[in-house]
């Protein structure tokens, strides 16, 4: 048994969670119950799994991709995707008396996430009900926390290797022989290779921002909470230069590796797809019932 310290003082929680969050990076989570992963597994470099100075380095470099100015460069992509959603709603409303708009929200969110996070032009909304990526998403996000396998995994961490292997087998069974997560990882990997080989294929998306951050070097000894928080521009850059250095860092640590770019692009997709589509669906429910 491992002792656990529970903090109930609100002022102390504010100090830990907000003011000094950079000093409490190694907080446990559900996934920490998993056994150590093998080298090369596709989620090893997820930011949420990193610890210590490596978390601080990757977090500080990735943060430069989430400044207000850079995120605004993706607005046109999002506008085009929303316009496709409006066209779909109009077409489906003419064809059917009943419309499951949540599925359209899922397809729209999928289009935005794969375009912005993974650099993939999937055109999901052209076939929102049966697109391959939508089937992948159903498999990835279809596991319920009330499932027997999840309960065993949470209750008996020592069986983590067994339950994880069962989960991978379920993925393959539900997805006609392929692991949907690995399919998306491989597609994104090919996009990264293609862009690295041909600068003309650059795009205004999160994946490109992360690839550009490979040229940013950081000294974790000088990192503060401000440098780990997204917002306005946190570093000075010259668009004509191929290498940028964060102005408050010394060049002593490398930027993101190829695997770190790939893994955290996937993390952005995983974190953004289900949460955004569910929020849109929940917001639409009372709006549709009482317009």
Secondary structure: elements and pairs:
Layout: H1 10-19, H2 52-63, H3 68-72, H4 75-95, H5 101-116, H6 132-140, H7 148-155, H8 160-174, H9 180-197, H10 206-212, E1 216-217, E2 244-245, H11 258-289
Parallel strand pairs: 1-2
Helix pairs in contact: 4-5, 5-11, 7-8, 9-11, 10-11
Question: Can you describe this structure in just a few lines?
Answer:
The chain is mostly helical. The chain contains 11 helices and 2 strands. The longest helix has 32 residues, at 258-289.
Give an overview in words.
With 291 residues, the protein is mainly alpha-helical. The chain has eleven helices and two strands, in the order ααααααααααββα. The protein has helices at residues 10-19, 52-63, 68-72, 75-95, 101-116, 132-140, 148-155, 160-174, 180-197, 206-212, 258-289, and strands spanning 216-217, 244-245. A two-stranded parallel ribbon has the order 1-2. α7 (148-155) packs antiparallel against α8 (160-174). The longest helix has 32 residues, at 258-289. The chain is globular, with a radius of gyration of 21 Å. The model is unreliable at 31-35 and 234-252 (pLDDT under 50).
């Amino acid at each position: 048994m491992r002792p656990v310290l529970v903090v109930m003082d609100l002022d102390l929680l504010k100090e830990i969670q907000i003011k000094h969050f950079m000093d409490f990076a190694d907080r446990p989570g559900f996934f920490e119950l998993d056994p150590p992963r093998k080298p090369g597994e596709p989620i090893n470099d997820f930011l949420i799994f990193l610890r210590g100075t490596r978390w601080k380095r990757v977090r500080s470099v990735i943060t430069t991709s989430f400044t207000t100015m850079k995120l605004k460069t993706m607005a046109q992509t999002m506008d085009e995707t929303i316009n496709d959603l409006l066209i779909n709603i109009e077409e489906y409303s003419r064809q059917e008396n009943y419309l499951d708009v949540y599925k359209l929200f899922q397809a729209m969110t999928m289009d935005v996430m794969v375009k912005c996070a993974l650099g993939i032009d999937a055109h999901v909304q052209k076939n929102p009900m049966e697109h391959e990526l939508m089937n992948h998403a159903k498999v990835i996000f279809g596991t319920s926390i009330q499932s027997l396998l999840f309960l065993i995994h949470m209750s008996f961490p020592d069986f983590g290797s067994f339950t994880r292997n069962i989960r991978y087998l379920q993925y393959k069974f539900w997805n006609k022989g392929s692991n949907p997560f690995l399919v998306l990882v491989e597609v994104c990997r090919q996009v990264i290779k293609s862009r690295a080989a041909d600068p003309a294929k650059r795009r205004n998306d999160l994946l490109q921002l992360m690839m550009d951050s490979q040229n940013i070097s950081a000294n974790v000894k000088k990192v503060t909470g401000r440098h780990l928080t997204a917002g306005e521009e946190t570093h000075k850059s010259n668009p004509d230069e191929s290498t940028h250095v964060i102005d408050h860092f010394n060049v002593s640590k490398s930027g993101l590796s190829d695997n770190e770019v790939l893994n955290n692009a996937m993390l952005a997709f995983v974190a953004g797809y289900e949460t955004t589509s569910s929020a849109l669906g929940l917001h639409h429910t009372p709006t549709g019932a009482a317009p």
